[in-house]
Design brief:
Elements (H helix, E strand, L loop, with lengths): L1 H13 L17 H4 L3 H5 L3 H17 L3 H24 L12 H26 L14
Helix pairs in contact: 1-4, 1-6, 4-5, 5-6
């Protein structure tokens, strides 16, 4: 689910104008013609791998459905968002690093990691209380 949302956000971000990731708003860096270009128009195909990284990260908990995997991905997405914001606000020219993170996807990943953790704790508690699957041979009903 997070991978689908991260993919949709990546497409959405690629359509933003370049002024979203630079200081074009205050007229410091680029000519206005470049500031009005979309991120896709400015970077071209090189933006695809950068936008694919969050999508690939979001697939890790689907392949490894463990709480630590969810927390790992959520942490990485948060760090990538901070790095992307820092790059966007400190760079005078557009950089691919500014597009790397998505704060909404990172927050969703944190929420899903919490849900995965809660379900994991509940499953562990039920198993310890003996509410696991019934062994037919051990119950004496042959």
């Amino acid at each position: 689910m997070v991978a689908i949302i991260a993919n949709a956000l990546g497409v959405f971000v690629a359509l933003w104008s370049i002024l979203e990731i630079t200081d074009c708003e205050i007229g410091l860096s680029l000519p206005s013609a470049q500031c009005n270009q979309s991120i896709w128009d400015y970077f071209g195909w090189s933006v695809i791998p950068v936008l694919a990284v969050p999508v690939l990260l979001c697939l890790i908990p689907a392949v490894v459905p463990r709480p630590w995997a969810g927390w790992f991905v959520a942490g990485l997405l948060l760090v990538m968002s901070v790095v992307g914001f820092f790059s966007a606000f400190t760079s005078s020219s557009p950089e691919l690093l500014s597009v790397v993170g998505s704060f909404p996807a990172a927050l969703l990943a944190v929420l899903l990691a919490i849900v995965l953790q809660v379900f994991s704790i509940g499953r562990t508690r039920l198993t310890r209380q003996g509410a696991g699957p019934v062994n037919v041979e051990a119950s004496g009903s042959h």
